Amino acid sequence: ALAGSVSGLSELQFLLLSGNQILDCGATALSQGLSSVLKLQQLDLQCNRIGQDGWNAIIDRLPLCTQLSILNSCRACSLLLAGDCKDLDLSGYEMGFAATKFLSRSSSTLKSLDLRKSGLGVEEWSALGESLKSCVCLAEILDFGWSKSVLAHGVTSMDLDKRDIGDLEAVVISALLPRAASTLSVLQLCNNNISDDGAMYLCQSIKLLTELIFLDLSNNRIHDAGANWIAVSLTHLPCLQKLDLANNWIGDPGTEAISGSLRTLTRLQTISLSRNQITDCGATALASILHLLINLEKLDLKLNRIGPEGWSTLLDVLSLCSNLMSLNDCGSYA
């Protein structure tokens, strides 16, 4: 009812509806009237129950409100809509969906972005990531303490060990990694909380890192599905010398997928798959390609579920790896 009345209030300047029970359908209905409220200066819909569909309907109409300067108590709304911003503070105002829509307008100027407590989830950050890719001057995202090291121009090494990185953060990192595609040689994402979904997003960009020498995803929560994504990315990393996937939940299907990709990585020197869920089947798959890795110096498969049959198959092949110096962290192997 209110939505229908709004369209007739051509002189309306302030519409404050925060802290109610508005859902997507109510927000969509309200959006239909916004195009008639040309003098609207402030719109506040914070703390309702509006989801992505409802916000998208509202945001699609915002460019028609040419005098709008404040959205959800955020005075940076007009800057976001106008574009060419350098420092953009959208924190704490449920402005994430608006940022996803309009951030590209500042792609050539934006240096600092603050979206803390903005209500963005994995799906929204994924959409926002497409805009972030084009923000060539961006130096910091205040939501993430590690962003400066990822955004640095010409970066050759990213150490993101123990940074409490989960799937949401993985989405953001994936959006930013292409900036370092021609320079990055070391990517360490160990000791975090990345699951299969996070691995999927990351690997879409990892495959672009053609100069990568060391990839470390150890001590995360990656299962076989994530290992399959890793396997796809490995085929695009011809310079890779060290791969660490220890202490995850990778079983035989994931090991088989990774083994299929390793056969082309002839520069590989170190493989660590310790503390996973590999059995004899996975060990056999890995054994079938080890003779192709002529530079392999270190192989770590300890604390899996490999039995006598799997180890026997591996040891038969390892005798062909003339450069192997360490097996299961035992430097006396050679």
TrEMBL record:
GO terms for biological process: nucleocytoplasmic transport. The keyword Repeat applies. Keywords: Leucine-rich repeat, Repeat. One of its GO terms (cellular component) is cytosol. SUPFAM superfamilies: RNI-like. The keyword Cytoplasm does not apply. GO terms for molecular function: GTPase activator activity; small GTPase binding. It holds the Pfam family LRR_4. InterPro entries: Leu-rich_rpt, Leu-rich_rpt_4, Leu-rich_rpt_typical-subtyp, LRR_dom_sf, RanGap. Signal peptide: none annotated. Gene3D superfamilies: Ribonuclease Inhibitor (3.80.10.10). This is Uncharacterized protein. It comes from Cryptomonas curvata.
